[in-house]
TrEMBL record:
<keyword id="KW-0812">Transmembrane</keyword>
<keyword id="KW-0808">Transferase</keyword>
<protein>
    <submittedName>
        <fullName>Uncharacterized protein LOC103492663</fullName>
    </submittedName>
</protein>
<keyword id="KW-0472">Membrane</keyword>
<keyword id="KW-0325">Glycoprotein</keyword>
<keyword id="KW-1133">Transmembrane helix</keyword>
<dbReference type="GO" id="GO:0016757">
    <property type="term" value="F:glycosyltransferase activity"/>
</dbReference>
<dbReference type="InterPro" id="IPR044174">
    <property type="entry name" value="BC10-like"/>
</dbReference>
<dbReference type="InterPro" id="IPR003406">
    <property type="entry name" value="Glyco_trans_14"/>
</dbReference>
<dbReference type="GO" id="GO:0016020">
    <property type="term" value="C:membrane"/>
</dbReference>
<feature type="transmembrane region" description="Helical">
    <location>
        <begin position="29"/>
        <end position="48"/>
    </location>
</feature>
<keyword id="KW-0328">Glycosyltransferase</keyword>
<dbReference type="Pfam" id="PF02485">
    <property type="entry name" value="Branch"/>
</dbReference>
Length: 393
């Protein structure tokens, strides 16, 4: 009896004891907010990657690459049949072992409307160096009258050339195609009727034959006369980020001349969508085709500057021209002493881009030729150039 009574008392006591308190899993509100903000930031960073380096360096001194390294890769675009074929042809040409001719030649390609006013000067320049050069003349308006034996009979098939249109690029490609027929031509220089040499033949020959790159002008201009000329009709093969600008006056090695002549894919985009009056702006094909093409196909194989000097310091539609009174020894000396390439963007910032002119890794004067000279300057040039070594570096 006593035992049972004791059990009842114990059970009663247990009934009035408080039960176990439930454990709460509630976290501080600030942790939830922080995690949400970080998640939103990462999603936005993936969808809208930072466009400037300043934002990247807030998070890491190594810049945007740190962020993009651990983000999922953007799916690669599937190339069309035409792109695949083009890439294969360009790759094979660039990777073909370089075959040096016994006496390699420089092909001088003259783009002119008619007769060349400085033939006498070029005659003096070429004299005594037969077998080391070839001359090709594209006269787009009238048959030229020659005064030098080096130019006689050197005309190529020519068509009309209109400034700003693809016909300018067509003429350049036509000159290259004709010059490529000669396997000894190893370097190709495009010149106009207003161009003159700045050094003697030996200096220019050694400079070009012994170089390891092509001198194609190329820079990124975000302004209205650069990327402002881009058309989205060039997609998907050509994106705005690859669109480049540069002077048309080039000097290129044989492999590069071959891929320019072989190209149809990228050329067709500029033929159809880069011309005056398209989409409310004037796209000048000869200022954009080659810079964009080489930036996409072999950016490390070009110098990004031209060996032909043109003075745009007056900021006009046309470069500065030189009359007879302008041609002095000091002028030529000043031009031949320039060893830094300069480009200015066309946007409101007018950003000045400078980089040294490197020849096989060594800084040297940039220019071998210059334009734009009026025909009246011929006699002064002949007198100054009577001894070419006096102005050669």
């Amino acid at each position: 009896m006593k035992t049972g009574q004791k059990w009842q008392l114990d059970m009663g006591d247990m009934k009035i004891l408080p039960g176990p308190r439930p454990r709460t899993t509630k976290r501080p509100l600030w942790i939830i907010i922080l995690v949400s903000m970080v998640s939103v930031f990462l999603i936005c960073a993936y969808i809208y990657p930072p466009s400037g380096t300043a934002a990247c360096y807030i998070f890491s001194s190594k810049g945007c690459k740190v962020i993009t390294d651990w983000l999922p890769p953007v799916p690669a675009r599937e190339y069309s049949d035409a792109e695949i074929a083009s890439r294969i042809v360009i790759r094979e040409i660039l990777n073909t072992p370089f075959v040096t001719a016994n006496t390699p030649k420089i092909a001088f390609l003259f783009l002119t409307p008619g007769s060349l006013p400085f033939e006498k000067l070029w005659d003096k320049f070429f004299h005594g160096h037969e077998g080391k050069f070839s001359v090709y003349v594209h006269a787009s308006k009238e048959k030229p009258v020659h005064v030098s034996r080096y130019f006689a009979g050197r005309e190529t098939h020519s068509n009309e050339v209109i400034w700003g249109k693809i016909s300018m690029v067509d003429a350049e490609r036509r000159l290259l195609a004709n010059a490529l027929h000669d396997p000894d031509n190893q370097h190709f220089v495009l010149l106009s009727d207003s161009c003159v040499p700045l050094h003697n033949f030996d200096y220019i020959y050694q400079y070009l034959i012994n170089t390891n790159i092509s001198y194609v002008d190329c820079f990124n201009d975000p302004g209205p006369h650069g990327n402002g000329r881009y058309s989205e009709h060039m997609l998907p093969e050509i994106e705005m980020k690859d669109f480049r600008k540069g002077a048309q006056w080039f000097s290129m090695k044989r492999q590069h001349a071959l891929i320019v002549v072989a190209d149809n894919l990228y050329y067709s985009k500029f033929r159809d969508y880069c011309k005056p009056g398209v989409e409310g702006h004037n796209c000048i094909a000869d200022e954009h085709y080659l810079p964009t093409f080489f930036h996409m196909t072999d950016p490390g194989g070009i110098a990004n500057w031209s060996i032909t000097h043109v003075d745009w310091s007056e900021r006009k539609w046309h470069p500065k021209s030189y009359g007879a009174q302008d041609v002095t020894y000091e002028l030529l000396q000043n031009i031949t002493s320039i060893d830094v390439s300069v480009h200015v963007t066309s946007d409101e910032r007018k950003e000045v881009q400078r980089w040294p002119c490197l020849w096989n890794g060594v800084q040297r004067p940039c220019y071998l030729f210059a334009r734009k000279f009026y025909p009246e300057a011929l006699n002064n040039l002949l007198n100054l150039f009577s001894n070419y070594s006096s102005i050669s570096a």
